[in-house]
User: Fold these one by one.
Assistant:
Number 1:
Amino acid sequence: MRKKARVVVSVAMGLLAAVLTCWYVTSVREEAQVRQRETIESYGGDVTRVCVATRDIEPGERIDDGSVAVEDWVSSLLPSDAFTSMEEVAGKTATSRIPKRAVVSAAYFIEKPVGSLEVPDGMVAVSVASDEEHALGGAIKAGDRVDVYASRDSVADLLFSAQVLDTSSERVGGAALSWVTLGVEPERVPELLAVTSQGMVTIATGGAFSSGAASEKGGTS
């Protein structure tokens, strides 16, 4: 009888653990959906279905449904060349690293001439949506050292210094700025993607951070 009772208790505990796990996963998913809805509502509810990297994708990898998913994103925060369906992106080979949770855009698949996009050692290339209002009137170019700011509760916070690797206006001569590719330290990528999922970052130059970085770079050359 005791053995039977232990078996019954073990089964019951196993079922309880399974129920609790299911409840936890569901609650986490619902919480994420709520946050996404709140972000969408704060930007007027204008959304677009786009492809988002579900994991880090390395250069040379072919895209499939195991690495990319289609999700709702705020339209005003998207690069103009973002892919909107799996049919558009499946089978393409990435030419630069696509960080997890990044919106998948054509910028990650450009067949670039040798030397046209040089990612500094220890850095990761990340493309973010931008415009002239948030990037010095569009007067930025590859090679510039910039400071990246995020606006939270009407306060601008300095995130980090970065190097401009490429811009849409340089890629398509004379076009209005719609995206910027930055060279970012790997540990900063999740923070940058989290911030850009809620709004555009502001790119500035001439601040103490970028000037210091530039001076340090110049002093070591």
Note: The mean pLDDT is 78.
Number 2:
Amino acid sequence: MALLSHRIPMTLQVLVQRASGGEITLDNCAALSPPLVEALESEGLLTDEAYVLEVSSPGIGEELRDDRDFRSFRGFPVAVHFRDAKGSASRCEGLLLERTASELQINQRGRTRRIPREAVTQVLLVTPAIES
């Protein structure tokens, strides 16, 4: 667990693992978030200001590499690293929609963003954040 108080809003990151070493899915992480928020609030912790709770597992943060990865993780939150039209490094986040031969499509707040496939340098799974 890490409290990143330098971020605005401050961020509480919680890393979860099964004692058995079994897999933790994004759905598992998302299911843990509401009880954690409830526990923090019932104990009066972090109630003075807004914060973001990030629940993740060792598998989150992995790079999507092949077509199978992109099909398997449709609808999941991703961070896309790419070069913009001027060649500058850029990053954006959204829900993975599709990767075609020519572009990567993500959903950002209900709008489809299309990034030319040749501009994409990396696509990572990210932790769903719950704002409180």
Note: The two ends are 18 Å apart (CA to CA).
